[in-house]
Amino acid sequence: MDFRKAVIFGGTFLAVVVILNGCGRKDHLKAGAEAIKRGEYLKAVSELTKAQIQDSLNPDIYNNLCFAYAQLDSAKKALNNYAQLYRLNSPLKDDINLKLLVIKFLKLDPYASSSITIRGMANLFKGAPSPDGEMIAVAAARTFLSDIYLVKYDGAVVRKVTSGYMNNDPDFSPSGEHVIFVSDRDGDEELYLYDLKTQKTDKLTDNKFVDFAPSLSPNGIEAVFVSNRDGNWELYKINVHNMRVVRLTSNQVWDGFPDYTSDGKYIVFSSKRGESEDIYYMKDDGSDVKMLYGTAAEENDPHLIQDDLYFKTTRDGDWKIYRFNLKTKALTRLTNNDNANWNIRISKDGSKLLYARNVRNRWQLNFINLLIPIPSGVIAEAANDSTKIVGNKTVGK
User: Fold this and answer.
1) CB within 8 A of 243, min separation 6: which ones?
2) Is the Cα torsion angle 198, 150, 135, 322 positive or negative in sign?
């Protein structure tokens, strides 16, 4: 073989090797991605690890490895692969679904959150966002007897709605023109409706029993609530114009935490009619009751926004807030603090969530912005801190 033929042969051989190597990388990556689609996560890890050896700078490999390890509950390996995505500065690190998948392994909240304070108020028991996103109706107190205030998200008071007695459970009407709340000003807890324009308050219920936890319908005409007026905690609805009350549930167990769906056709609520407190839904006339979500743990305070169900649960021991997507079945923990979380209220567009927690014997109101996920850099930094990793299974080598 002369020199020219040798060069041509050598070049051809090298090209074939490069092509074969490239095909090998693509084949292992493709095989790993396809294994993930089939739910074969160990097979995916095996294929993707081979691809990684051949191409250590391909972000698609780390993205798929992160997903596969997360499905296998291998916290450290999932987070290590996410950290590598961050080091490669790949746009894949900002994928919200991937963030939500790995954040479950960290002691961090998946979305931007902050506390809301009102000057001079020691306790903020409950808050409800206004439909326009500008204000919050808050039950706040200097000590323990709370009044209803309209405040900005920075805590600036716009208006004091009540004065004296115990006032709680505020909720805005969908139009933002009214606030419904509970007060014991007549000796027991009744429902009241405040008009923001006229600044007048109408008493909706009048009896010797307890009425609480009201939620206004999307058309603002009716409100669903909890009452023990018939000897047991049941759900009722009232027409806010003619005060006509209709009983919706009838059984010997607790039914509570009612809330209308966005179309007003259904009501979600919690009930202890099973072995534990679970989440149900029914038509707005009380018919066709079905379980919506249930586990061996306790779940209550549900709010259904499109396909996303928000609720609190004891699945982790203490009350924490979760979101469950009815279509994808994805379950996301939204709070990760050291306190029990209570009194969920969420804006009708699903962008803002408010909840309360007791910190050092004081009730604190917290705001979660569901439009701003946790920065990728925070996840990558926490991935290197073993004290922030929750649980881990050993998978692979």
Assistant:
1) 204, 205
2) negative
Q: What is the pLDDT of residues 142-199, one digit of tens each?
A: 988 999 999 999 999 999 999 999 999 999 999 999 999 999 999 999 999 999 999 9
Pairing of strands 123-129, 111-116: unpaired
The answer to whether 28 touches 44, Cβ cutoff 8 Å, is no
pLDDT at 15 exceeding the cut of 60: no
Angular region, 151: left φ>0, alpha ψ -120 to 50, beta rest: beta
Query: What is residue 113's three-state secondary structure?
Result: strand
**pLDDT tier, 387 (very low <50, low <70, confident <90, very high otherwise):** low
**How do residues 208-257 score in pLDDT, each as one tens digit?**
999 999 999 999 999 999 999 999 999 999 999 999 999 999 999 999 99
- Spatial strand order of the sheet with 147-151 comes to 123-129, 136-141, 147-151, 157-160
Question: Cα–Cα distances in Å, from 36 out to 33, 53, 66, 96?
Answer: 5, 19, 11, 18
Q: How far apart are CA 331 and CA 49, in angstroms?
A: 28
Q: Which amino acid type is present at position 231?
A: G
Give the integer Cα–Cα distance in Å for 341 and 318: 8
Structural domains for the chain? 3-105 (1.25.40.10), 111-380 (2.120.10.30)
Distances (CA, A) of 333 to 32, 37, 249, 295: 28, 24, 30, 15
| 3-state helix/strand/coil string of 256-308 | EEEEECCCCCEEEEEECCCCCCEEEEEECCCCCCEEEECCCCCEEEEEEECCE
